[in-house]
Predict the structure.
Amino acid sequence: MRIMSTDALTAEDLEFLARPLHGFLTVAAGPTPPQPRPVWFEATAEGKVQLFTEAGSLKVRRLNRDPRASIVVAAPVGEPEHWVSVAGRVTVEPDGAQELCARLGARYWDLDNPTLADQIAQMQAAELLRLVIHPETVRRYA
């Protein structure tokens, strides 16, 4: 096993990223040290990575200044080491965030639980934006 690098997600990457794992998102912050945040995400069939966030979030403000970000996704403890890192430019999209929130809510949580379903409904009631990472560098270890 070794670290490999490409400019696109592979079929194996997409299979790994389809699992309900947390990603750690880092946005460019100029002289401020990076501060990764755990996020829900979805890898698209076109090989992009998307997530949603509130319109007024710090990550949106930072991305408006510098549209670069990366996400790292790792296998959980108890599995052999496996991770994928995607870095690239980010577009902030005004459409599709509510639907993405619903899909990811169902992927990460048991929405038969009324408390969790209510939390997703509250998230969807906020003004959400969809962030799309367009891969320029993909690194992986598997």
Remarks:
- The chain has a mean pLDDT of 94.
